[in-house]
Each structure stands twice: as C-alpha cells, then as structure tokens.
Amino acid sequence: MKVALIGVGQAGGKVTERLTRFDAEMGYGAVQGALAVNSAEADLQSLEFADTLLIGADRVNGHGVGGDNELGTEVMQSDIQQVLGALDGRVTSSAEAIFVVAGLGGGTGSGGAPVLVHHLQQVYDVPVYALGVLPGRNEGALYQANAGRSLKTIIREADSTLLIDNDAWHEQGESVEGAFETINGKIAQRVGLLFASGEAVEGVGESVVDSSEVINTLRSGGVSVLGYATEIASEDSGENINTAMSVSRQALLTGTSLPDATTADSALLVIAGEPDRIPRKGVERARRWLEDETGSMQVRGGDFPLDSDRLGALVLLGGAERSDRIQEFMNRAREAKKAQERDEERSDPAEQFADDRLENLF
Ligand code: GDP
C-alpha cells in the first residue's frame, strides 16, 4: 500500500522518521513521502529521513506549545495552508492512503493532528488515517487528559485511528527514553510490514494481500489495532501448521498495540515467512480461529514473503473501539481532566475569594 506520512509533534516526527527509514532499508518502497510538522524547532532538527516544516513561529517562536494542546490546535489552524502547500508534490497521485502520526498526549501533535486530518479529508480522495500513540498509565494527568480529548476528536475526523498504547510494546524496567526507542522500532517494523504487505512483491504466489484489503479492513472507522508475533519455523511447511496457529494466537492475544483488544468488526491476517515454510492448512485454521475470537465475519488474509527462518503473523483489527482498554483509558482521561479543573480552581485566587458572603468594598 503506497502511503504518505505526516508526523505532527515530537513523537509524530520520530515515529514517521523511523517508519520511513525502515521502509527504505527494507527496500519496500511503500512510503511515498514523509513530512514532519512541529512548532518546536529543536525536535525537527534531529530528523534526517523526513522533510520538515516549522509551524506557529509567529506565536511560539520555534519553542513548541508545551503541553497546551488547545494552542496546538490553534497553531495548526492558523498555518494549515502552509502545511497543505508543503504536501503538494509529496502526497503524489500514487498514494493510496495518508497517515497522520502523532503522540496524542502532548501539545502540538495532540491538538494539531485532528485539525490536519480534518483538512486533508477535504482535499484528498484517498482515506486519511491517524496513527496515534496513547500515553502509558504512568504518564502524568496532563498527558491523559490531552490524549482523551485528542482521541475523541481524531476518531471523529479520521477514516480509522490506529492506536499504539505506550504500555504495549516495551519491556518492564526500561528507561522512558529506552522504551520510546523500543516502541518506535516496533511500530516501524509492524506498521511498515502492514504497508509493505499491500505491495506487489517479486516472486510471490497468488494470495498476497491487496491494498484494498487493508482499506476494507479499516472501513468501519473507529479504532484499529495491530498485532504481531513470530516463531522459529521448520523448513517443511507441513510441520508448521501448529506454528501458524500459535503465532496468530500470540499476535492477537499478547502482541497487539492495544492490549486486550480482541473484539472487532473486521480483521486481516498476514502470515509472513519463506513461501516454502507457510502451511496452507495452518493459515486457513488460524483465519477461522481469528473469526471466532474477534466475532468478526470478515477476516481477510494473505501471505507475505520474508527471507527468514521464522514464521510471523500480523493481525490488523478494524472497528476495535469496543475494547475494555479504550473504556479504561477514557475513564482515566476524564478523571485526569476533572482533577486538572479542580487544581485550576484551587490555584485561581479569584475562585478562592469568590464566595459572596463577604462583599467587595467597591
Ligand atoms: P508534542 O511534540 O507537543 O506533540 O508532544 P509529544 O510528541 O512529545 O507527545 C507526548 C506524548 O507522546 C506522551 O504521551 C509521550 O509519552 C509520547 N511520546 C513522546 N515521544 C515519544 C516517542 O518517541 N515514542 C513514543 N512511542 N511515544 C512518545
């Protein structure tokens, strides 16, 4: 699937860069163009693979919006023509979809990405998806509250929002920075493989996934989720029937970008590996299992050739917003917002003296 990527904010830029690099290094050629947009100049300077655009310089002078996502929204609204102009020629006619990438808990990405998605929908005919990073449980209240509002808005605007929970794809005990590196690497590999699986790859049998199957899996909108797992496989495909099942189970049950999301409107199962190692029977069985497990009547599927001694399963779920994890996150965001408002009241001297049992002198 040929895509154009636009990263907004720090996380958006870093993830976009990583994805673009992965796609180039693997020689997939799915990423047609990449642009990183930010109000913080320093964050843009560290990027090599994506083109960059600074916005909001008249408001924040290249220093970013802090954690103020309402300011992030305003800055994107003011400079939207500049951003759309910069995309001219980068979103080429070969792009089959646009992905807007952002950390939903910050300021520029959180506030700016939904605005950008909204405007892209007016300009382009291809689907506009969001790739959103949710803050982990241990991140502060501001991140949770910001992400709640951003998620609500971006789901309304995007054709589908692929969610990555920052708690999902890293090891316990890693430093925050180390964890980001790990998570970004995993996003690049998994999402990069999803893009590539919609590409024509040389020397492949008939059941390669078509881009339209990815797009159809995401058609119901709402939240989408991606899972991945691999295992060592035998050279004889006949011995890999259980392996195909077991990687598919792991991809869905323990390997998804949003833990515990297993209910979906539609699903796509891509089995990746050396063509000789991919067991037809195992793939069919895994697909039926996925149908039962997700309650989805529409499980699409295909193979992706990978030069590896392992067998991998990539599972994409569309319409997965009914998961408990989303409910839990939205509750967390609402609580954080309430706590923030209480704090603001307490720290506002006017509120403290608002009681009219004592009157002002004049
Ligand atoms: P912005 O630059 O104002 O849009 O803010 P950020 O992009 O820094 O957004 C902050 C949110 O993104 C927080 O939830 C962070 O945990 C998360 N975040 C920041 N950098 C990264 C990163 O490199 N990878 C991942 N996965 N999350 C990040």
TrEMBL record:
It comes from the Archaea. One of its GO terms (molecular function) is GTPase activity. The keyword GTP-binding applies. One of its GO terms (cellular component) is cytoplasm. Residues 2-203 form the Tubulin/FtsZ GTPase domain. Belongs to the CetZ family. This is Tubulin-like protein CetZ.
